[in-house]
Amino acid sequence: MSGAWIGLVRSLWRTTRSRHSTRWVSCLSLSTRLGLGTCLALITCLGCGSDDGLNRKAIKGNVSVNGTDIPNGSVTFEPLFAGGVGSGAVISQGAYAIAQKDGLPPGKYRVQITGDDGENFTVSEGKMPGDDIMPPKKQLVPSGWKEDIEVADAGPFDFDFAIKTKK
Questions:
Q1: Which tops the pLDDT comparison, 143 or 97?
Q2: Residue (of 97, 103, 99) closest to 55 by Cα position
Q3: d(C-alpha 44, C-alpha 28), whole Å
Q4: Given the DSSP bridges, would you call strands 68-69 and 95-98 parallel, antiparallel or unpaired?
Q5: Residue-wise DSSP of the chain
Q6: Residue 112 CA from chain centroid, whole number
Q7: Maximum mean pLDDT: which of 41-55, 119-133, 152-166
Q8: Which of 73, 101, 4 is nearest to 44 (CA)?
Q9: Taking a C-beta distance cutoff of 8 angstroms, is the pair 151, 104 a contact?
């Protein structure tokens, strides 16, 4: 319950319990007081709901390039249908996960993945962080790589991507 509601309930309680109050709440009939309490409870409960009606699914999986997990990267899911909702996650040590509240509704999605070798780069001699010319990170996923998937109504919702760059 939010702090404002708690404060309101406390002040109403104090008003009804105080010796010197006008006892305006006691003037209300029992059914009116119960109705007000029920409305207050409903408003509070409805405000706490997190379901957006999209039937989102928690998504997880692993990403590897040529059999080696991607140390650092990101995965994005772009909807291929009108009105769709996309999502994405960080890849860490080859794994990613999207919680249900941020998950994907059933439908078709285009997956795009980026990933680097996870090596910390050093600044070139004579350069400072923020300079225009910084050594590029080694990208493991070929630029333009993408794959289409479908999230069904029923699980499992594990999507592993084994990207091959060597033939």
A1: 97
A2: 103
A3: 22
A4: unpaired
A5: --HHHHHHHHHHHHHHH-TTS--TGGGS-HHHHHHHHHHHHHHHHHHH----SS--B-EEEEEEETTEE-SEEEEEEEESSTT---EEEEEETTEEEE-GGG-B-SEEEEEEEEEE--PPP-PPTT--TTSS--PPP-B-SPTT-EEEEEE-SSS--B--EEE----
A6: 18
A7: 152-166
A8: 4
A9: yes
Ramachandran category for residue 130: left, alpha or beta (phi over 0 → left; psi -120 to 50 → alpha): left
pTM of full prediction above 0.70? no
How far apart (Å, rounded) are the C-alpha atoms in residues 73 and 117? Answer: 9
**Model pLDDT, residue 46:** 46
Average pLDDT in the 3-13 region? 58
Is residue 41 within 8 Å of 34, Cβ to Cβ?
A: no
Residue 149, class by beta-carbon neighbours within 10 Å (0-12 exposed, 13-18 middle, 19+ buried)?
middle
pLDDT value for 134: 61
Q: Which of 86, 49, 91 is nearest to 70 (CA)?
A: 91
